[in-house]
Structure formats: C-alpha cells, structure tokens
Specification:
The protein has 218 residues and is α/β, with parallel strands linked by helices. The chain has 11 helices and 5 strands; from the N terminus they run H-E-H-E-H-E-H-E-H-E-H-H-H-H-H-H.
Length: 218
C-alpha cells in the first residue's frame, strides 16, 4: 500500500435502504480522500465486519432490522472505542439522539444532509470533531444543559488552556480547527485533550462534552 492509500479515510456504511446505501457507497467511492471498506444492510455482524475491514469512520443508520443503530454503536464502542461513528436518521428524535450520543456516537446527521456536507462531516469526525446537523446540535446541547450538575467531592481544576480547548470541543471544532484557533500544533491539542480526559475521568470526546455542559465547566 502506498502513502496515498494510507492517507485515505476508511469508511464503512450501515444502511438498510438499498437505494440509499448504493447512493452513499457511490458518493464515498468517487472521492479520492476516502476508501469504502464495506456497505451493509444491517449491523448484525458489525464486530466481525469491523475486525475484518478496520474502518476509521462508520456511517450508521439508526433504524435497522435485527439490531438498531443505537445498540450497534454501543457494541462497537466497547470493542473499538477509537472508531468514529456518525449516526444517520430521517427524524431528529430527542430520545434517539440522546441515547446514540451517550452510547458513543461522535455525531448525528439527518439523511437530507447535502452530499458534500456529509463528506465533510466524515472528515471532521475522523480528525476529532463532533459534526451534527444544526437542528440536532441545538437539541443535544439543550438536553445536556437541562440535566442537573453532578455533585462531586473532587473539584475539577482545569488550566486556562484546557478550559479553552474544552470550550472548542463543546462547540464541535475538530482537532485541526482547535490547533489553528489556539495557534498550537495538533499534537499539543491531543496532549491537552488527554489531560482533560484524565481530569474529568472520561474516555471519549462525547463524555467530555457531556460532563463539561452538565457540570458547567465551560
């Protein structure tokens, strides 16, 4: 495999609608930045599929026969927490949005999202962002803010830079965008985010953003 192929983002697709699955497959395959590792009508074999084809980003339909996308992302997150999962749905249902994000999805898109925005969302998720359709982003932020702050005997002490980066995370910025905004390298961003995770006792960006909003840390 040459360097050009290694730089491509490996994408898998789970969608039970065959016409939409074929359309998305063609869209992803035609752009040189991506390589499609698999397109599946259901998520019944998602762990086996993932072990075999090792995608980096997965587009996941929320309503599929056999196992829902909500349950599939939970299974996947336990086995492969590093894989970024973008949920797709026709409706921005509050409960499904919340459960998907809590189960480990990094983003949530409506199926009517324009094709180029869909591809940009894959790139953003791959680089550490949390892309969401605007109406869904508003719902997610609203749901997190409505929750009562958790009581903790331990005061969380974040540095000014860590608070700045955490704020950018809650606003959905990718690692690259945070690096540009803070005028630091992406490696430095990753270092700070690792420290943030340790201080918040979390293991993913979704958990960090949830806790930051719930406990009013930013």
């Amino acid at each position: 495999m040459n360097n050009k192929e290694e730089e491509k983002i490996k994408v898998a697709l789970y969608e039970d609608n065959s016409a939409l699955r074929d359309s998305l497959s063609s869209l992803i395959s035609v752009f040189p930045e991506f390589v499609l590792t698999g397109a599946y009508p259901n998520a019944l074999q998602i762990i086996e599929n993932t072990k075999e084809n090792t995608p980096e980003v997965i587009l996941m339909d929320i309503d599929m026969p056999g196992i829902t996308g909500i349950d599939a992302v939970l299974q996947l997150h336990k086995e492969f927490p590093e894989i970024k999962v973008l949920m797709q749905t026709v409706f921005d249902d509050n409960d499904k949005v919340f459960r998907s994000i809590c189960n480990g999805a990094v983003g949530y898109l409506l199926k009517k999202t324009p094709p180029l925005q869909m591809l940009q969302a894959i790139k953003d998720a791959h680089s550490g962002g949390a892309p969401m359709s605007p109406t869904i982003a508003q719902k997610v932020l609203g749901m997190f803010r409505q929750q009562s702050p958790l009581t903790s005997q331990e005061e969380i002490k974040l540095s000014a830079r860590e608070k700045e980066i955490l704020t950018h995370l809650t606003n959905g910025l990718s690692y690259k965008m945070i690096a540009e905004s803070c005028e630091i390298s992406i490696d430095t961003v990753r270092f700070h985010i690792k420290k943030i995770y340790e201080k918040l006792h979390v293991h993913s960006m979704t958990e960090a953003v949830s806790k930051a909003l719930r406990d009013k840390l930013v």
